[in-house]
Fold:
Amino acid sequence: MLDYMIYILAFAVGSILGLLYSYKKHGEPYVAVSDFNIPSAAVSIIGWCLAFNAGNVVLAAVGFLLGGLIMGERPGYGRKETALGLIVAVVLYLLLKLTV
Structure:
């Protein structure tokens, strides 16, 4: 039960940090940049893969923090990167669970 609370707190902190970072990086009032951000995609992939595939609580919490960092950006930013990270993490999870 405590594991889930740690995951929720890590994700919430990551979302808040992502929102603060996004407001600092993008000052415009609407989505003006629709480019695919490769560093954000790398952070999202690493984060969601750790969150779904880590064997211990600490690494999974770091994964939820990193996933929340990208997912918690301002509306319209980070959506493609988050989707890619989730897809890669789910595919990796299925490959690891089906091959064992």
